[in-house]
Write a structure and sequence with these properties.
five-stranded antiparallel β-sheet; 10 helices; alpha+beta; elongated; 2 domains; nine-stranded antiparallel β-sheet; Beta-galactosidase, Chain A, domain 5; single chain
């Protein structure tokens, strides 16, 4: 990593991450997180030592270190030392010294995290915002607060909500008319002690953690103003903000320094990829910026497994396929019992129809006879649902991991140039959809094949639903990252192989279409 610092404010203007290319194109250069519009590590509220103050360099005497110093007219001196560590971490040491002969007031002040926006060519899922701010409160035992999303069944206010009038927050924007256009910027103070604050986009993050915590925090966000929006023309107003940049500041209470007295402040400043191993090494729950949610223990296990498999095969596409095989092996007993249960249920359909005709005027007796039939033939009517229910947590966890895993950014596999985005073949040449994505189509084909092989319950409404499932999958998966489509298609193919094996093993069993 290469940091570019400025003598004005002793701040960080950019961070160049050499191991992460800017685009998939050869020669695009590395990712450069540009903070020039809102620099990182600059003080606000300290006249003479803020972003307008010019610092002069001092000899550091150590490799990978930068020392800068500035002094106000009343003798308040700030000496800053930046020490570049391994794994995208910077140690920041600030020493305030009163060199005058009279007490000096250090007023309430704040230190910034640089503004972050979307990177060039970054794919975004519709309805999902990756620009976000996270904070960890120092007291009260609170968990990490993710200001980019709302927790399930909570009344959390998100960054997007803060742009709205109070009556329109929390879903009220669909019911309450706007009285003014959305502000282009919001600044929300948090008057509580925090251990750290983080500002992030889809793949990269800054985390600023002061030793001993901070006295407060301020959330800052800007929205993209749509072309044609007129402040005097309500029909042109954006109803929901699209975030353009996010930033944050950690706030500290003021103090008075007597002559010769010092105030020392130390920070850990991480600026790099949202990579679980690097973030876990930071401690203090900073790995929570991955925002894995309810299934974080499962997500972390899947990330670890994916990285191990990549270390074996050297390609993340193959690693996803191998991970799918492993999951299918783990769930084989459950899926096998489920399909066998569905097969037995299908074989009972003639007897069930006979019971329906015989007891159509007595539903209670029909239900009793039906349950007796199930017990006699050892059939569980919910047995076919069990495999899906058991695998749902794994699918949700994989979805969370694969949608924003930095390891998949620009990872290639066969014709796919970027597993973290749709395939986008023939981009701009396909009417209506804009680009050709083959994997969602293959997903629909394999779903149709699997439906044909799967024993059915005989319920006409269920059969109609399964008939339309391939079209639903195309609609849902068409704009999803290729990694998710690759997992789903591989999983479908393995399920088809399992069903073919079961049919060959029991050739007398009825098929789904008989």
């Amino acid at each position: 990593m290469t940091l570019r610092a400025s003598s004005y404010g002793a701040c960080v203007l950019s961070a160049e991450l050499k191991h992460y290319p800017l685009t998939p194109e050869a020669g695009s250069g590395p990712v450069c997180l540009d903070f020039r519009s809102w620099p990182a590590l600059v003080y606000e509220g300290v006249p003479g030592l803020d972003g307008d103050a010019e610092f002069r360099p001092l000899p550091s005497g150590e490799a990978g270190a930068l020392r800068l110093v500035a002094e106000t007219s009343d003798g308040l001196r700030l000496e800053r030392t930046l020490r570049l560590q391994d794994s995208y971490r910077v140690l920041v040491e600030d020493v305030f010294l009163n060199r005058g002969s009279a007490p000096v007031v250090l007023p309430d002040h704040a230190i910034s995290l640089g503004a972050m926006g979307r990177l060039e060519g970054e794919h975004h899922l519709k309805g999902m915002e990756f620009l976000a701010i996270d904070t960890l409160a120092s007291t009260g035992g609170e968990a990490v607060r993710h200001w980019g999303r709302k927790r399930f069944l909570s009344r959390d206010v998100t960054l997007s909500d803060l742009f709205q009038e109070p009556a329109r927050r929390g879903g009220g924007c669909a019911r309450v008319a706007m009285t003014r256009p959305l502000p282009w910027e919001i600044r929300e103070p948090l008057r509580r002690e925090v251990d750290w604050a983080a500002v992030k986009n889809k793949f990269f993050v800054q985390i600023l953690a002061p030793a001993g915590g901070a006295d407060g925090c301020e959330l800052i966000a800007e929205r993209a103003v749509p072309a044609g929006e007129d402040p005097d023309d309500p029909p042109t107003w954006a109803q929901v903000p699209e975030l353009a940049r996010v930033a944050a500041m950690l706030r500290f209470r003021g103090t008075t320094l007597g002559p010769g007295e010092t105030l020392r402040r130390e920070f850990s400043y991480y600026v790099g990829p949202k990579e679980l191993a690097s973030l876990r090494a930071l401690g203090a729950h900073q790995k929570e910026v991955m925002d894995f949610g309810t299934w974080k223990w499962l997500c972390e296990g899947l990330v670890w497994t994916l990285r191990v498999l990549h270390g074996v095969v050297g390609n993340y596409g193959l690693a996803i396929i191998l991970l799918t095989v492993l999951l299918r092996v783990v769930f084989w007993p459950v899926t096998h019992r489920g399909t066998e249960s569905m097969k037995r249920m299908q074989e009972l359909q003639p007897k069930l129809r006979e019971l329906q005709v015989r007891y159509k005027s007595d539903p209670r007796e029909f239900h009793r006879r039906q349950m007796e039939l199930f017990r006699e033939h050892r059939v569980n009517p919910m047995g076919g649902c069990l495999p899906m229910l058991v695998q749902l947590p794994v699918f949700f966890a994989l979805y969370i991991v694969l949608r924003s895993a930095v390891e998949l950014r620009f990872a290639r596999f066969l014709w796919i140039r970027d597993l973290s985005a749709p395939e986008n073949l023939l981009a701009g040449r396909i009417p209506l959809v804009g680009a050709l994505n083959l994997l969602p189509i293959l997903t629909a084909v394999t779903q149709a094949w699997q439906t044909r092989l799967t024993p059915s319950s005989g319920d006409p409404s269920q059969q109609r639903m399964m008939m339309f499932m391939p079209l639903v999958l195309i609609f849902v998966f068409y704009t999803m990252p290729a990694a998710l489509n690759l997992y789903w298609t591989s999983s479908q193919m393995l399920m088809i192989i399992q069903l073919l094996w079961q049919r060959r093993r029991a050739p007398g069993a009825l098929s789904a279409q008989q």
